[in-house]
Write a structure and sequence with these properties.
This protein is an all-beta fold and 107 residues long. It contains no helices and three strands.
């Protein structure tokens, strides 16, 4: 399904009877991908001999992409009842866009 409200269909799974294991393979669920683009721009200006002024602008997560975390993988409680929030993504793993500026004078 792929959305944060329902990343996978939890009704496709059923609780196994006591004493039995299921047949689902290990690492069957692949989480959402992660993409992050950072950008930096630097301008250096020379003032005489041995003196420099450097301006720096840095942007982290420039496209402000929401990178979702792993969906909730617990499907059943201890009594075998279905958990309503199973398959939902509740968090992000990277922060939103951040911009910082810097000025450095070297002499």
């Amino acid at each position: 399904l792929g959305g944060p409200d329902r990343y996978f269909d939890p009704t496709a799974f059923e609780a196994q009877p006591a004493g039995f294991t299921g047949n689902l393979g290990r690492n069957s669920l692949i989480g959402p991908g992660l993409a992050n683009t950072d950008f930096s721009l630097v301008k250096s200006v020379r003032f005489g001999e041995g003196r420099y002024l450097q301006f720096r602008s840095e942007v982290f997560n420039i496209f402000n992409r929401a990178n979702f975390g792993i969906p909730l993988r617990v499907l059943f409680d201890t009594q075998g009842n279905r958990i309503a929030s199973a398959g939902q993504i509740k968090n992000t793993v990277t922060p939103s866009r951040q911009i910082q500026f810097g000025l450095k004078f070297t002499f």
